[in-house]
């Protein structure tokens, strides 16, 4: 792949020097990401997964709108994080479409940046949640109509449940026997489905990140303070409860997302409390009372929804999320559904954070 990138991709971005390095970057499930370095500079190069993003130009357009808006907010003193900028190809476009050889884009690289996979303590949760809340507040002044859809029904729980039911019905890979108990757990959550159906239509539509995992936050390795919100590929119209819920379900466990040590997978209440306060504080003048109450629902929904998506992909034969081992998506599903069970077990205590 390195030779192909050197010979066929980088010249489109005006890079033709021989003395450069290309290394893989991050551990995302979807796109292929590389760090390209040469004597005069460096940038991040991505091959967009056009199976997941069938309209990749929408993704590019959204990223450009959001980058421009965040820079404007910086000028007004309303945004204090760094901004990841799209880098134009030599033809002035912000992507290179090589047909069957891939859809490529380049974005700026932030030196001294570092990502983490697990939130270590309440202080780290508070800092990261404040940054995500700050990002949401900055986007609150961006007209949602400017942003195009990139994945239909991305955070649509009824649609994800429908997909799961279809996967169970088809059982193309004869994997159902090993995970039927997890399927049953998901399909029994009818009270949650009803609650979501009642609340979501009443919430204001906003521009949201839609993938607020802790590893989509860059920290400055020199002092481990928040540096930038990254991976804007799924930025679309949405609801704060999903951004918040995804963030908290990713923050709250002391184990990584694919850990099989389920006895250690738990929703840590002190992490949830710290993240909730700092996120809500950043949005104090923006968030509505109903939005605030919906945040607890968002945590539950996102843990259940991601568990359902991983489980559906496992049953279907691992066609969406990249895997590194046998039953990887089943392990991920079990992990997220264990978080969901932990959340439910602590519901009477945790829901008071959002009153």
TrEMBL record:
Aminoglycoside phosphotransferase domain mapped to chain residues: 22-256
Alphabetized UniProt keyword annotations: Transferase
UniProt entry tagged with the keyword Transferase: yes
Highest taxon in the source lineage: Bacteria
Gene Ontology molecular function, alphabetical: transferase activity
Stretch forming the signal peptide: none
This protein's record includes keyword Transferase: yes
Pfam families per record: APH (PF01636)
Protein known as: Aminoglycoside phosphotransferase family protein
Taxonomic lineage: Bacteria, Pseudomonadati, Pseudomonadota, Gammaproteobacteria, Alteromonadales
């Amino acid at each position: 792949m390195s030779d192909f990138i050197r010979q066929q991709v980088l010249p489109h971005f005006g890079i033709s020097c021989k003395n450069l390095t290309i290394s893989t970057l991050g551990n995302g499930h979807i796109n292929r990401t590389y760090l390209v370095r040469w004597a005069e500079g460096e940038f991040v190069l991505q091959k967009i997964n056009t199976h997941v993003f069938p309209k990749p130009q929408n993704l590019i357009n959204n990223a450009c709108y959001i980058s421009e808006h965040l820079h404007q907010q910086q000028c007004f003193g309303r945004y204090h994080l760094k901004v990841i900028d799209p880098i134009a190809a030599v033809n002035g476009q912000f992507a290179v479409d090589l047909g069957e050889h891939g859809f490529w884009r380049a974005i700026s690289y932030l030196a001294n940046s570092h990502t983490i996979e697990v939130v270590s303590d309440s202080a780290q949760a508070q800092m990261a949640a404040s940054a995500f809340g700050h990002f949401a507040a900055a986007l609150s002044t961006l007209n949602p109509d400017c942003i195009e859809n990139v994945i239909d029904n991305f955070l649509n729980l009824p649609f994800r449940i429908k997909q799961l039911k279809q996967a169970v019905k088809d059982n193309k890979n004869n994997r159902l026997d090993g995970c039927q108990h997890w399927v049953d757990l998901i399909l029994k959550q009818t009270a949650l489905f009803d609650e979501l159906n009642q609340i979501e239509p009443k919430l204001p539509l906003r521009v949201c990140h839609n993938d607020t995992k802790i590893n989509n936050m860059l920290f400055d390795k020199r002092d481990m303070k928040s540096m930038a919100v990254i991976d804007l590929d799924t930025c679309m119209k949405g609801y704060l409860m999903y951004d918040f819920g995804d963030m908290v379900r990713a923050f709250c466990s002391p184990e990584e997302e694919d850990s099989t040590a389920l006895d250690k997978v738990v929703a840590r209440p002190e992490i949830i409390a710290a993240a909730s306060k700092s996120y809500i504080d950043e949005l104090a003048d923006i968030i509505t009372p109903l939005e605030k109450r919906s945040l607890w629902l968002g945590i539950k929904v996102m843990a259940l929804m991601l568990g359902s998506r991983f489980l559906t992909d496992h049953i279907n034969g691992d066609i969406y999320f990249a895997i590194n081992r046998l039953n990887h998506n089943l392990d991920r599903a079990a992990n997220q559904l264990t978080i969901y069970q932990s959340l439910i077990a602590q519901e009477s205590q945790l829901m008071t954070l959002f009153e």
